[in-house]
Design a protein that fits this description.
This protein is mainly alpha-helical. The protein has one domain. The protein is built from five helices and no strands. It is elongated and about 50 Å long. The protein starts with a helix and ends with a helix.
Length: about 120
Amino acid sequence: METVLKILIGIIAIEHLYFMYFEMFAWETIGKKTFKSLPENLFKPTKGLAANQGLYNGFLAAGLIWTFFISDIIWSKNIALFFLTCVAVAGIYGAISASRKIFIIQALPAIIAIIYLVIIA
């Protein structure tokens, strides 16, 4: 993979590691600051749901990080394409179902990386 693609994938992976952290371990602190539209009294009862969602974000990050360790270029790109597509779909769904801001934060970087992967790399 080319350097630019690795940087894009790395940024997206770090972003999802951060999502995992605050959804699994800091839902009642960082979560409140991030999701201001949710009533404050919902954070404690939804802590388990957020942790589950955080776990999925951790899996996405792990899949993206895995691409750095695959020596076969074709396989590395295929795995990257799969996980970037998962991130983009999750971001699009989140934008439709929760907040349009999710499209900018999650889906758009993945879509840019997908375009770069398919067209340029």
